[in-house]
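Sat 14:20. Reprocessing the chain from the morning session after the first attempt stalled halfway. Input below, unchanged.
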Amino acid sequence: MSLLEIMKKNNIDPNWIFTHARLHNKEGLFFFESVVTDDDEGEQEQYFDAKCLLIDNTKLVYGDDMEKEIEINSLDDNIIFNRVDGASVSIPSSGFDNFPFKVIEFGTSIPKTGKPKDYVEID
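Finished this time. Tokens:
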């Protein structure tokens, strides 16, 4: 199933942007709506409104109770936001200093874990 199909199945707008995130040690995609408003002086301001997380085929609607638990992946000190059509934007991690999300580099290696307690080796 393609990402677009998964988004449609979960009622996620295909124009929303997403980034790689983690919640309670489970990784997935964190979706944001790009919002443009006019300020008091008639100039446009743009911001990202957090909408939901998609983890293990489960849509989790974003709420204040989870915001401090969310970790966002950084790469070379930047957060990469993508759209399903391939468009992307890179924002320096320093721009997220006042946000409640944790910004960390997830890394590219798979952590080594010990064998399960019930592991049986067959020769």
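The mean pLDDT is 84.
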